[in-house]
Amino acid sequence: MDQNGNNNRASWGSSFGFLMAAAGSAVGLGNLWKFPYLAGENGGGIFVLTYLIIVILIGFTMMLGEMVIGRKTQTDAFSAYDKLKKGWGWIGGVGILAAFLILAFYSVVGGWVLKYIVAGILNAIPADTETYFGAFISAPVEPLIYHGIFMLATVLIVARGITAGIERASKFMMPALFVLLIISVVRSVTLPGAAEGLAYYLKPDFSAFSPQVVLAAIGQVFFSLSLGMGIIITYGSYLGKEEDLAKDAIVVPAIDTMVALLAGFAILPAVFAFGLSPTQGAGLLFVTLPQVFAAMPLGQIFGILFFLLVLFAALTSSISLLETSITYTVDRFGWQRKNSVVIVGLTLFVIGILASLSYGVLGDFKLPFLDLVFFDALDWITSYIMLPLGGLMMSIFIGWIWNIDEAVDEVKSSSPFHLEALWRFLIRWFAPVAILIVLITGLYQQLIG
Ligand code: PHE
Asked: In principle, which of 31, 244, 413, 440 could form an S-S bond with 260, CB 3.0–4.6 Å?
């Protein structure tokens, strides 16, 4: 690589390839599993509205910021910050650690998805999906096996570098997921009793508004858009100098948000139609959708296909999560790629065991202060603290420490930048101030209030 990092470094074959990879990382369990249950837990419509506002004001701003840093520096997240301003690599470092911790519990949920494919094939999911799911995740051994298989699959893909195949597969898997999601939505919203769920999902109840709702929404925006972890920096570093960044920073969040909204439409109306509780948390997808499938012709086949595509979406996200740690150990410490994948993968498997067991035998073991089981604590610390904090640091870095004019020039070097004035304001003032306020008030409420 030369001084500018431009020589013989791979770049995306096409603008479409980059968009698919970025969208592939973004669209995952965050959209299909997490968004609907967070909406359910946080008052429905009010959460959705808050989420949309944050995606537009902060999601777009951060996405463009990461793309700019990536393309400008053409290197990994840690080195990127360091290259722009000596001594600031740690911002990227925090993100890498967050990605590592997220993968530990992400893989457990990936395992749940696998289980539902197997159970679908065996036609083993009974009408009482609540009891079934509860019994499965609290079992001592079975969820660990599925978690192990999911982690192994992630490790194998990253180790063998067959991401090219994944990219090719994405081109039809992602659209297929979209189609199946829409069919599920149609079934869900036409169930008798769905109207109440639709109202819950779409009509904001302003009395349910609280700093915690905003904190949940902001954390989810970062999680769902794969922000604050250096992933978009890494992907952006492979971008050609002709790419229209300002456009990409709108398209990727738009795709991601559409999938999340559709998942909510597929799940929440059905929750009410079947008399389930929208606030039951992490099991919502697994408890609700099998009942939706049971209520449609060829539901078994449909359900298997659906969870297969969810698995695929989860894998395209988990490989990006793992790749971050691997690139870091390889580039900074000169580890062999294969060794790094094995070591990091095994470590994650072990941490994931603790996460998985926290729905079973470790259920009484709560972390001090947070009063959360290990799984929830991992999720909480990453989504509610590390990612927003990473975003806060990045906006301060671009707006005040590096050089906002250089950042703007980087966007303009390839295309007109109509939103320049807006972006300058958002990244320098709005994003840091808003994130700081949300962090402080949300944390205060959660920990003390
Ligand atoms: N955005 C992914 C999802 O919504 C998860 C993810 C988070 C992937 C962070 C990469 C980085 O499922």
From this structure: 31
